[in-house]
Structure formats: structure tokens, C-alpha cells
Design a protein that fits this description.
It contains 15 helices and 26 strands. By secondary structure, the chain is α+β, with helices and mostly antiparallel strands.
């Protein structure tokens, strides 16, 4: 039955005025919704689908994304449902075997593995958390039809589940509606890049014999590439790039015979497939919108950038887009900051996605070499390079996305120059999850402290200065909250040498008895560090200088 079109309400006469309207309830949109709910932002989230995805789609949740979920207070829900893999193994037809071992990041993160979890499960967890913790429902079967930007925000025509057209109004609209974004098409936003002319078949099937390990396994030959990724209930994702089938029409459906034939053609070891749950095909592309913000409309996730699936980076990038933008939106809406802060979303996230697009494009070209001479040369070079321990560590950091940071952002460079600090965390650097003792919590961690969704100010006193530091800390907190609201959580940091009884009741303290704040953050006696709500360094100073801190924070938040 088609949509019954009823008379549209007039522009400007909406169902409700919201702060934010999220289009798309996949992993990115649902992450955005959970984050905005944490901050008490009034929002609506809609999706034209009837519910969460039934298909596995993206399978890998990387370490940095798990750290984000930790800061959101929900990482255990993901760990309980996923499988832990150590990385990727690549086997070539000439006998060469390469590995990317994610466990090389052990010591840098609490999550030194790849969590194998179907996207359908990721979406369920996020939707359940939104409903159970925040009592907020996704409006399923609601389709975006038109958008208009106004001086006050955005107006959107939305068809609800019975086909009625309604006008929803919001101050901001976030496009999280995927690679075929309706928002992008309605606004004619450029999606720059190209199609890689590589057709990919995939299927979620049972295989015989089953894989011995839980790692992603790739087999490459001059005939094509077969990738195998075990996930849940004895099912394995099979991805096939068959050079003999690159002239298939994009509308031709994939059959089990097609997939089985390609496996036999490319892979040297026999594998039988059965019981298909999902069969599909696509043509690999790499594209990106030139801007992430168009007045009061933002793009995130696949609506902003797409690339081939090598490395499983896409969903993770999108989730981190949402985390980056959400706290900035909350401050712009609720805390008297200029909207220029929102421009830093593009400035920080666009370069990271662009680098991933370049890297995955290069990897696909390397993996799909057809010339036998180049094939052998690639294998020789790759075999030599990946055997080096430091290279393995760098590969693991890249795959896990721990390497991503904002240190080269314009604001970060200006702050770092002004702070004049040779040691310690630079502005924009990822903040690791150090452990320590806090007032009232004998064993605490930075990511647990960040679950409040606030800036965290760490002021490390030295002998004889606690009283003055407490006065300065409380004065800074008062000024910050007068300007931005209750968006900062300050701590006096001490060590064994400093008596806790000197800290007044009501002032939160951290005892860095293990020295992790000193080692991980460079937070020495007589210095301070401001951590952003998304787990990156905002400002680090080798001296306890609240005047300079106020000046630089105002400059950053009021750009």
C-alpha cells in the first residue's frame, strides 16, 4: 500500500519545536541521541525504517569506540554480546602470511582487541539504552520529505507512519541517514570523490570447515580476494572480490552459487557455504562532503563520508563523529557559547575521515593487484615491513583508531603555542584511561569520571600550595559556571607526600598514588590539565595559571 498524502501543514506551523532533529537511527544517529539525552537536550530522532537493522552490516567495534562507550557508561553491554578478536591475518597464494595483531596496543587501552559484533546488535544496545535509561523513543516509519533552513533553524516535512505530512521544527538538524542520505540529496550537497570500480559480493553464511580462529581472515591471489569474518551463532561474513565477475550489473542479485563459485575460483582451500542469512553486493566508493556544517545542518557518519570496508573503519568513524559534535551542540544550546564552537566539529573530524579514505583507497588498490609481477613485489615488500615490531604497533594503533587526535587542529595549535609546554599532553591529544583514587571512590578511572559529560579540571598541587590552589580552583569553577553553566568538574590532585586533610570538605580530590596521571598525562606537581568531555586534552599548562586557563578556554569555546 502506498503512502496516503494528506494536506501538508503550512511551513512554520510544526508539531513541536525541538532543539535538535536527528535524521537516521543507525549506530551514528542512536549514539547522537544517547549523547544528547545525557546532556538534557530536547531532541527528536526519526528513521524511515520500521526498526533497527536486521542485518549484520558493520562487524568490528574498535578500541577507541569502546573507550567512547566507556565514557558513556555502557561499554559492558557491548562486551557482553561481542566476541574478542586479536586482529587480521592475510594469506597470499604464494604462501606469504601477514598479521595485524591488535594486541600490540595492550598497555595503551583497556580494550586491546577488535570486538566482533554485528551492527544489528550495536543498534539494539543503543536503542535499548535510549529507551531504558533516558525514556526516549525513536520515531520509526517517519520519512523525511523536504527541508527548509530558516533564520531560527530548520523546518522539515516528515511523513509519519500513516502517511500524514507534518512539519517538524528544530534549531539544528543532524543528518545521520547513511551513504544514500536523503538530507544530502534534498540539499544537493556535493559528495566528492569517486567510485573505485570494484564490485564486492558479500554473504552472511555458515561455512564448512569453520574457521579455527576468531580473527578476520583474508586470502588474496591474482584472481581476487576472499575475506572471512566469523561473528555470531556459527555465522561468518564472506566478502568476495572476484576479478572474473567485475562486469556484473549492479542490479544483479547475488546467489549462493555466485558466492560459492568465487570462493572456489580464488581460494586455494575448499570451503562450502550454506544457510544464507543475508546476500548482497555493492561497488566500492570513497566520497566525502566538502563541509560538515551548512548553517544549522550537520552531516555525520556515512552521510558525511564513505569508503570501502577494508579495516572496518566506517561505523567507528561515524560514532566518534557523533561524540565529538554532541557535547558542542549541548554547550551551544544550553551554555552561552558562540556557534563558532560548532565549526570545530568539521575542523577536527573532516581531516581524520579524509585520511581514512586515502588509506582504505590505497589498501584496496594494493589488495586487488592483478599484475603477477606487481603482486609478487607487493608481497615481498609487505612481508619485510610488517615483520618489524614498531610497524605492527603503528598498524594496530591505526586500525584501533587510537592514533586519531586533534593536535593539528587550528585551535589546538594556537593553544599549544600559548601554553609553551614541552612535556605533557598537547591540546587535542587523546587522553588515556588512567586509574587513581578519588574522594569517596577508592578505585576510580578517568573514563568513569568523564561519564558526567563535563570538562574535567586536574590541578596538581605541590607541598605548601594546596590552600592557594583550592582557592584558585574554586574561583575558576565559579567563573566557568557563571559563563557556561555546570559543565566542569574540578579536582585537586595529590600524591603520597601531600596530606588530604588540608583539602576542604566539598572539594573533590584525586590521589595519584600509582603515578599514572604523572606518567600518562605528564601532570607533575605544580601543573594543570583540562580534559574535554569526549576524552581529549583541552589545555595543559606546566604552571597552575588560572588566568591563562580562563583566557584560552574562553578563546576556544567562544571562537
Amino acid at each position: 500500500m502506498g503512502i496516503v498524502r494528506k494536506k501538508r501543514k503550512k511551513w512554520g506551523v510544526g508539531l513541536a519545536q525541538k532543539d535538535v532533529l536527528i535524521i537516521g537511527a543507525g549506530p551514528v544517529g542512536l549514539t547522537m541521541a544517547n549523547q544528547l539525552a545525557r546532556y538534557g537536550v530536547d531532541f527528536e530522532i526519526i528513521d524511515q525504517k520500521a526498526g533497527c537493522s536486521l542485518y549484520s552490516k558493520a562487524l568490528g567495534v574498535h578500541a577507541r569506540t569502546l573507550e567512547m562507550f566507556d565514557m558513556m557508561g555502557m561499554v559492558d553491554k557491548f562486551l557482553d554480546r561481542g566476541l574478542k578478536g586479536t586482529g587480521l591475518e592475510i594469506n597470499f597464494s604464494d604462501g606469504l602470511r601477514l598479521e595485524v595483531d591488535v594486541s600490540h596496543i595492550d598497555g595503551q587501552t583497556s580494550y586491546p582487541y577488535l570486538l566482533i559484533l554485528p551492527q544489528s546488535e550495536t543498534e539494539k544496545i543503543l536503542e535499548e539504552n535510549l529507551k531504558e535509561k533516558f525514556k526516549h523513543q525513536v520515531k520509526w516509519s517517519h520519512e523525511l520529505m523536504e527541508i527548509r533552513q530558516t533564520s531560527d533553524g530548520v523546518e522539515a516535512v516528515v511523513n509519519d507512519s500513516d502517511g500524514t505530512e507534518n512539519v517538524l521544527t528544530a534549531k539544528y538538524l543532524i543528518a545521520c541517514d547513511g551513504a544514500h542520505s536523503r538530507v544530502r540529496h534534498l540539499l544537493n550537497t556535493p559528495f566528492e570523490g569517486s567510485t573505485e570500480s570494484v564490485q564486492v559480493m558479500l554473504g552472511d553464511v555458515k561455512i564448512d570447515p569453520p574457521l579455527e580462529s576468531k580473527n578476520f581472515s583474508v586470502f588474496a591471489s591474482p584472481k581476487g580476494v576472499i575475506a572471512l569474518a566469523p561473528f555470531k551463532e556459527d555465522y561468518t561474513r564472506v566478502i568476495a572480490i572476484d576479478f572474473a565477475k567485475q562486469d556484473r550489473g549492479k542490479d544483479v542479485k547475488v546467489s549462493m552459487d555466485d558466492l560459492q563459485d568465487s570462493i572456489a575460483n580464488i581460494r586455494s582451500e575448499e570451503i562450502k557455504i550454506s544457510d544464507p542469512f543475508w546476500l548482497s553486493q555493492f561497488t566500492a566508493s570513497h566520497r566525502q562532503v566538502p563541509q560538515y556544517r551548512y548553517q544549522n545542518i550537520f552531516y555525520a557518519g556515512d552521510a558525511a563520508h564513505i569508503h570501502n570496508p577494508l579495516g572496518g573503519q566506517g561505523m567507528n568513524l561515524g560514532i566518534q563523529d557523533a561524540v565529538n559534535l554532541s557535547w558542542k551542540l549541548a554547550m551551544a544550546l544550553k551554555r552561552n557559547v558562540l556557534s563558532g564552537l560548532l565549526d570545530t566539529y568539521y575542523e577536527e573530524r573532516h581531516p581524520i575521515a579524509a585520511s581514512v579514505l586515502r588509506r582504505t583507497d590505497f589498501l584496496l588498490k594494493m589488495m586487488t593487484l592483478k599484475n603477477k609481477r606487481l603482486f609478487r613485489l607487493r608481497n615481498f615488500v609487505a612481508g619485510k615491513v610488517t615483520s618489524i615490531g614498531k610497524v605492527q604497533e603503528k598498524l594496530a594503533e591505526n586500525v584501533s583508531q587510537l592514533v586519531h587526535n586533534y593536535k593539528d587542529n587550528k585551535q589546538s595549535l594556537e593553544v599549544n603555542k600559548a601554553s609553551d609546554r614541552a612535556n605533557g599532553l598537547k591540546s587535542g591529544a587523546r587522553v588515556a584511561d588512567a586509574s587513581f583514587q578519588t574522594s569517596g571512590v577508592p578505585v576510580n578511572r578517568m573514563y568513569r569520571v568523564l561519564r558526567d559529560g563535563k570538562f574535567v579540571l586536574l590541578v596538581r598541587s605541590k607541598p605548601g600550595s594546596i590552600e592557594a590552589d583550592v582557592v584558585g580552583l574554586l574561583d575558576y569553577q565559579r567563573k566557568f559556571e557563571e559563563r557556561f553553566g555546570e559543565f566542569v568538574r574540578p579536582f585537586i590532585v595529590t600524591s603520597n607526600q601531600l596530606p588530604l586533610e588540608q583539602i576542604p570538605v566539598g572539594v573533590e580530590w584525586i590521589a595519584d598514588d600509582k603515578g599514572e596521571l604523572a606518567d600518562e598525562y605528564g601532570l607533575r606537581e605544580g601543573s594543570l590539565l583540562l580534559v574535554r568531555p569526549d576524552g581529549y586534552a583541552s589545555f595543559s599548562c606546566p604552571e597552575i595559571d588560572f588566568v591563562k586557563l580562563e583566557e584560552l578556554v574562553l578563546k576556544y569555546l567562544c571562537v
